[in-house]
Amino acid sequence: AEYVAESKVALDKYGGKPIVRGGRCEIAEGKGCPRNVILEFASYDDARAYAFSPEYAKAKALRQGAGVIDIVVVEGV
């Protein structure tokens, strides 16, 4: 709960919006992840700013040890 609240502070500051949170997922090839979250930002730079921000670092510290997490910033449509 604390992680979600702190993460939202960072999301709001950098204009992020969750567009996928979990849901059905089938790994057709490769290892993949059983649960996926996709966040949308206005730009690649905004996404990077969020991912490397002190605000998100605070949230990330609350989540340490809770599981294996991959965070990837991808420029898209």
Descriptive key words:
alpha+beta; Alpha-Beta Plaits; 3 helices; 2 strands; globular; DUF1330; Dimeric_a/b-barrel; DUF1330 domain-containing protein
Describe the structure in your own words.
This protein is of the alpha+beta class and 77 residues long. 40% of the residues lie in helices and 12% in strands. It is built from three helices and two strands. The longest helix is centred in the first third of the chain and has 13 residues. The radius of gyration is 13 Å and the shape is globular.
Task: Compile the SSE list and pairings.
Blueprint: H1 2-14, E1 17-21, E2 37-40, H2 44-51, H3 54-63
Antiparallel strand pairs: 1-2
Helix pairs in contact: 1-2, 1-3
Total count of strands: 2
Order of helices and strands: HEEHH
Q: What integer is the average pLDDT?
A: 90
Strand content: 5-15%
Radius of gyration: 13 Å
Count the domains. 1
Shape type: globular
Q: Given this structure, which CATH class is correct?
A: Alpha Beta
The CATH topology assignment is Alpha-Beta Plaits
